């Protein structure tokens, strides 16, 4: 025999801890609250006069005019065979003003003094069985294309994402999103934030939950532990306060999304849908805050869309912020983690689940594997008498992630079966190795320590890839059913 025996994401906090970051986060919630809940209950409105009045509240602007958004747009994927509907991507933007209800956007450009601190892509798959809401941080450094302004065309340059709205209004924001993501935008909605209090109050308040008493003078929040119903001012304080949980922006984003989940539930409840006064107040407050493209401004279209999404269970509504890292050139801004954002945009354009479901783990002895090959040290011994077999086996195990700590010959050359030896405490690691060598027999062998020893027998089947059940990576995705009472601390 000739076998020898040689022995996330980086993410800082400066980009999101500033006061502008706090304002942006509260606006994100207001924006989602207005759009999503309106879509969910619009179908309940009845009566020609009410329809006329609500449609009259909605501002209209044609940002999809080729002169505004351009002609070099992503290709929209056709619906899959058998699907009655096509996937929809709705770009939702928050604005500090709504002058002229759309006419304030001029010939396709900016509103004087207008800013957009929040931009979201709402993806509705063709089957309408789920929804994904993707937030693009305003401080993301991104390439902004040439956009139409009131004075001509702007020059392409790199800046913070929210600069696109200031340069060329919704058309420039749509163009920037499409050219940086490859995602085709079907509709857009601009929300004026001033109506948030009216919307919450029109619903009669929203239920929130705290793990402990919170009295925070700066925000004015004063709530006991457990469930409380908050109205306008307390709702704003709840979504903006930092003195809950760890005090981080991540905790606050989770709390805001939990608030939105509760608001959606309240808007969909029979107490709202079957109460004409409450329903009309809500629809009035919501529609007065909106500017949309002409097709979506039609309340019949909005009702149709509402009927399509009404059956989506909260557990199938996910929220995600574009994966990002702190900009190494400016800690007050962020840049995309392109590997992850590319996967996100691909999932949207192909109408696939994001993040993709993890592969099913390999099962042995009726249980999934729990120890990854990358954490296991293996010594490989040749028990066949065939030259080089241990070296070949070691090379194949290395490709599967195992660390080879030794290659050599067994004391005998007549091993008919492949053996996996392990010490006390190495049972789980041995299960993984045995799964990689189908048919191998496991034998407890004191004295090996943490090393797993493989004796290659004459029945050696080669090496099979295995999948290990691992702790889920924090991918920034949150379901609408997640409960704020689960906050630690």
Describe this protein's structure.
- The protein has 489 residues and is α/β, with parallel strands linked by helices.
- It folds into 2 domains: 14-358 and 476-486, LCP protein (Aminopeptidase, 3-Layer(aba) Sandwich), CATH 3.40.630; 363-456, Alpha-Beta Plaits, CATH 3.30.70.
- Helices cover 32% and strands 21% of the residues.
- It contains 14 helices and 25 strands.
- It has helices at residues 14-17, 19-41, 48-57, 66-69, 163-181, 196-202, 232-240, 249-268, 270-273, 276-287, 299-309, 338-349, 389-399, 427-436, and strands spanning 59-60, 88-95, 119-124, 131-136, 141-144, 148-149, 152-153, 157-160, 187-192, 206-210, 214-216, 221-223, 226-230, 290-292, 317-321, 324-326, 334-336, 363-364, 367-368, 377-382, 403-409, 419-422, 441-444, 452-456, 478-479.
- It has an 8-stranded mixed β-sheet with strand order 1-14-9-2-3-4-15-25.
- Helix 6 (196-202) packs across helix 7.
- The longest helix has 23 residues, at 19-41.
- Residues 4-30 and 98-113 have low confidence and may be disordered.
């Amino acid at each position: 025999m000739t076998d020898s025996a040689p022995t996330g994401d980086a993410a800082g906090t400066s980009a999101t801890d500033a006061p502008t970051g706090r304002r942006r986060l509260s606006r994100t919630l207001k924006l989602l609250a207005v759009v999503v809940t309106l879509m969910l209950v619009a179908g309940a409105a009845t009566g020609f006069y009410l329809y006329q009045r609500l449609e009259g509240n909605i501002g209209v602007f044609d940002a999809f005019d080729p002169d505004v958004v351009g002609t070099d747009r992503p290709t929209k994927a056709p619906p899959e065979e058998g699907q009655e509907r096509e996937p929809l991507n709705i770009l939702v933007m928050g604005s500090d003003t709504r002058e002229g209800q759309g006419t304030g956007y001029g010939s396709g450009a900016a509103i004087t003094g207008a800013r957009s601190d929040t931009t979201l892509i709402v993806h509705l798959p063709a089957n309408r069985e789920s929804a994904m809401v993707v937030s693009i941080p305003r401080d993301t450094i991104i390439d902004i294309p040439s956009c139409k302004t009131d004075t001509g065309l702007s020059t392409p340059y790199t800046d913070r994402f929210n600069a696109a709205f200031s340069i060329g209004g919704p058309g420039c924001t749509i163009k920037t999103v499409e050219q940086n993501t490859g995602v085709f935008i079907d509709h857009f909605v601009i929300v004026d934030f001033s109506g948030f209090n009216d919307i919450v109050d029109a619903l009669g308040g929203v239920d929130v939950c705290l793990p402990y008493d919170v009295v925070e003078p700066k925000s004015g929040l004063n709530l006991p532990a457990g469930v409380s119903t908050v109205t306008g001012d307390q709702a704003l304080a709840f979504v903006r306060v930092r003195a809950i949980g760890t005090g981080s922006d991540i905790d606050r984003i989770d709390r805001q999304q939990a608030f939105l989940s509760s608001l959606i539930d309240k808007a969909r409840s029979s107490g709202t849908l079957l109460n004409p006064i409450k329903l009309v107040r809500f629809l009035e407050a919501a529609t007065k805050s909106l500017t949309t493209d002409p097709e979506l401004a039609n309340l019949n279209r909005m009702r149709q869309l509402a009927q399509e999404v009404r059956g989506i269970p909260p557990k199938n509504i996910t929220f995600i912020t574009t994966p990002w890292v702190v900009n190494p050139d400016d800690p007050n801004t962020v840049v995309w983690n392109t590997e992850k954002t590319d996967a996100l945009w691909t999932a949207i354009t192909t109408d696939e689940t994001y993040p993709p479901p993890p592969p099913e783990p390999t099962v042995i002895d009726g249980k999934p594997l729990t120890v990854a090959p990358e954490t296991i040290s293996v010594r490989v011994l040749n028990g066949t008498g065939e030259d080089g077999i241990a070296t070949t086996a070691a090379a194949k195990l290395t490709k599967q992630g195992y660390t080879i700590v030794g290659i050599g010959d067994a004391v005998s050359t007549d091993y008919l079966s492949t053996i996996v030896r392990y010490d006390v405490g190495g049972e789980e690691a041995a299960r993984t190795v045995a799964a990689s060598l189908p048919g191998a027999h496991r034998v407890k062998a004191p004295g090996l320590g943490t090393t797993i020893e493989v004796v290659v027998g004459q029945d050696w089947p080669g090496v099979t890839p295995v999948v290990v059940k691992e702790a889920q990576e924090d991918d920034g995705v949150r379901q609408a059913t997640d409960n704020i009472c689960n906050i630690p601390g």
